[in-house]
Amino acid sequence: xxxxxxxxxxxxxxxxxxxxxxxxxxxxxxxxxxxxxxxxxxxxxxxxxxxxxxxxxxxxxxxxxxxxxxxxxxxxxxxxxxxxxxxxxxxxxxxxxxxxxxxxxxxxxxxxxxxxxxxxxxxxxxxxxxxxxxxxxxxxxxxxxxxxxxxxxxxxxxxxxxxxxxxxxxxxxxxxxxxxxxxxxxxxxxxxxxxxxxxxxxxxxxxxxxxxxxxxxxxxxxxxxxxxxxxxxxxxxxxxxxxxxxxxxxxxxxxxxxxxxxxxxxxxxxxxxxxxxxxxxxxxxxxxxxxxxxxxxxxxxxxxxxxxxxxxxxxxxxxxxxxxxxxxxxxxxxxxxxxxxxxxxxxxxxxxxxxxxxxxxxxxxxxxxxxxxxxxxxxxxxxxxxxxxxxxxxxxxxxxxxxxxxxxxxxxxxxxxxxxxxxxxxxxxxxxxxxxxxxxxxxxxxxxxxxxxxxxxxxxxxxxxxxxxxxxxxxxxxxxxxxxxxxxxxxxxxxxxxxxxxxxxxxxxxxxxxxxxxxxxxx
Length: 523
Description:
The chain is about 50% helix and about 15% strand. By secondary structure, it is an alpha/beta fold. The chain folds into three domains: about 1-180, GAF domain (Beta-Lactamase, 2-Layer Sandwich), CATH 3.30.450.40; about 205-380, P-loop containing nucleotide triphosphate hydrolases (Rossmann fold); about 385-515, Orthogonal Bundle (Helicase, Ruva Protein, domain 3). Strands 3-2-1-6-5-4 form a six-stranded antiparallel beta sheet.
């Protein structure tokens, strides 16, 4: 009778321990989504509260179809590393294969028990039971929860242990599923963020730069190659050719694309302030320096610093800039503490730096430091075949901005093609915007083109006509001069239209239109 009471007491104690353990495990799982924190603590609870030793959680890798011990209590790192199984291999593999629990009353008498971790010594002499239950989610087995039991000390059946471990495995399966869902959502948010960032940077993609000319293709090929390096770049070209656009494109295609792009217009900063702007200053460095200030170099750390109009930087600042390029260290104005900055330099100028070096206006050593990879951007008059696609681009841009649907006639486009565009792409953009805003109708005609362009066209045609030995007079019409120029170009090109178009700086489509317009016999 006393034995029966003792069994009842033992069973009640087990039930109390079971409920207490389940409560503690549920509390731990609810406290954090970090499985690396919660799951090891659960295995520790099983060991301390339930006497279940060497608890392991083995998870299935969906790609390799192998089982790896992800978390363990009472095993060394080396023992964990050895615990690798295939589906159907050993007790653990069989549980995954069948989706059902397996009880091994005595591991020393079970050939299916592989003891791959070698954590139990001579298993034939050990009085150990082994219990494995599947960890499932939505009916799919994702892993196995396993524990050891010292069977001589057991007061309850192993079936009770299986029931408790099955409940715990269910809680663990839910926790893993939730954690994976959260991680998936996090990954999707990161991808969405990166997509949005790419969209914000999309104006600076190589594919979005408008051109058809071989000269600009060479520029972009060079820009792409240099974007993959850390080399200093010197962009050269007239004002308005798009040097800043190329600089941003290089930056946003480099490995520094997620770091700052800092723009400094050296010509726009007073000589007395440029050092402070570039390198920063400490409090009290000069009158008005009431706060410490970070310079552009610090702001661009890890990213790109674009020094526009570098040819206008003062000689005194050139010395400090050279030191920064050589040593990657500088001090703030009025300070003595050295600051290191990992900055990629892209400089730009519309000046003849070689002439400035000869005149003593630009340091020769700084010139060579900047001129590592020179990239020259051609003027618009050197690549007139780019004018039509640029006109189309600006028409779309400013039509959307002004709520209009203005188009341009072939005659007006031809007028634009005959202009030299000393202000380059910037001038062309301003011209298109002005014509859209001021257009009385939805079709831009020749008379809608700004007067300055028409005057330039007539003067240019008169001068260029005389170059080819034609008896030009100022009272000749633009059409007559244009017809003669096209005919002369065709003769020089052997009546190959594409070649003649390149000589005139227009497209093959445009010269074909002109030939039909003026009834030029090319036979």
